[in-house]
Amino acid sequence: MVGDTLIAVLLLLIDTAIFVAGGVAPQLRPDSSPPAYLVFAVDIAMVAPLVLRRKYPLLVAYAVLLIGALHAALELGLASAIASGIAIYSVVVYVGRKSGAVYLALMITATVVQLFLQHRQDWLVNTVVGVLLMAFCWVLGEFVGARRAYQAEVEARLHLLETERDQAGRIAVAAERSRIARELHDVVAHAVSVIVVQADGASYAIRSDPGLTERALRTISETGRDALCELRRLLDVLRGESESEQPRVPQPTAADLAELAERMRAAGLAVKLTVDADLTALPTGVSLAVYRIVQESLTNALKHAGTGAHAEARVWREGDDLRVCVTDDAAGRARQLTPAPPPEPAGGGNGLIGMRERANVYGGTLDAGPAPGGGWRVAARFPARWQR
Q: How would you class 377 by CB atoms within 10 Å of its CB: exposed for 0-12, middle for 13-18, buried for 19 or more?
C-alpha cells in the first residue's frame, strides 16, 4: 500500500499542477472551469481508490470507471486516463483475464461515448490513443500476470521438493535405524544367549566336571570378544570414522555358516549343517541375510528348544532361488500344532521381525512356525541373482 499511496499522491500532484498552471496561463484552462474546492475533491476521489487496488482490484476498477467519467467530463487533468490504465492492469493481474476483458470493453465503450458526446474535433485521434493506451496496459498486465503465475508455480514446486526431501530423509533415517536395530539384535542376542547357556551349564558342572566348566568359560570368553568386535564395528560406522583411523572388520557371509555351526555345537546345541549351493556366488547382501537368519534361528533353538535338542540347517539352490530351512526337534518333545505362536525371544519377538525384514529387503519371503511332530521351523526363500 505504500507504493500505491505514492502513485496516488503523484497523480494528485500532477492534476494540481495542471490546475495551478491554468491559473497562471488561462488559455490552458477550459472555458467553464469548476471552482477549486470541486476540482480538489474530484481529484482526491479519483486517485484515492488506487491505494487499495491490490486488496480490492475489481471494486477499485469500477470506482475508477465511475469517478473517471466525471473527472474526464470536467477535463481536470491526466489522473482519469492514468488511473484507468492502472485499473485495467490491476484487474488482469489480480483477478483474471475474463474479468479484465469485460472491464476493458466497458472502459473502451465509456471512453468512446464520452469523447463523442463532447463534440471534439479530435475525438477520433483521442479515441485511438486511449484504446492503444488501454491495450498497452492489458499487455503489461498479461506479462506481469504470467510472471506471477510462473513464480507461484516455482515456489509450489520448491515447497513440494522440500517436502519430498524431508520425507525421503525420514524414510532413510527409519530404514537406517531399522538396519542398525537388526544388526545390534543379531550380534547381541546371539552372543548373550550363548553366554547365558554356557554360564548356566558351568554353574551346574563347576564341581562335578571341572573340565566342562573350563570349556564353557572359554566359550564365554571367545563369544564375548567376538561380540565386542562386532559392536565396535557398528559403533565405528555410526561415528563415521575414517578407514585410516579404524581397521575395517568384514561382515560375516553365508560362507561362514560352518564356523557358526561349530560355535553352536560348542555352546551345547547339536547342529547338522547341509549346504548344497555355491555360497560364494551370492550377492553380498543376500549372503549376509542368509547368515543372520541361520544365526538367529539356531540361537532361538539354543534358548527355547531345551537341553539335548538337535537342530538342522539346510541351504540349497532351487532354480534361480536360494532356499534356507532351519528346524529343531524341541529335544524330542512333541508339540501340539495350534494357531498360538511359541514363546518369542526376549525383547518382544524382535528376532522374527528382523529375519522377515532381512528377507523382504532382498525380495524374499520367510515363514516361521511349529514343525510337524514338534519343534520349530524357519524357512526362507531368496530370488538370488547369482554372480558369475
A: middle
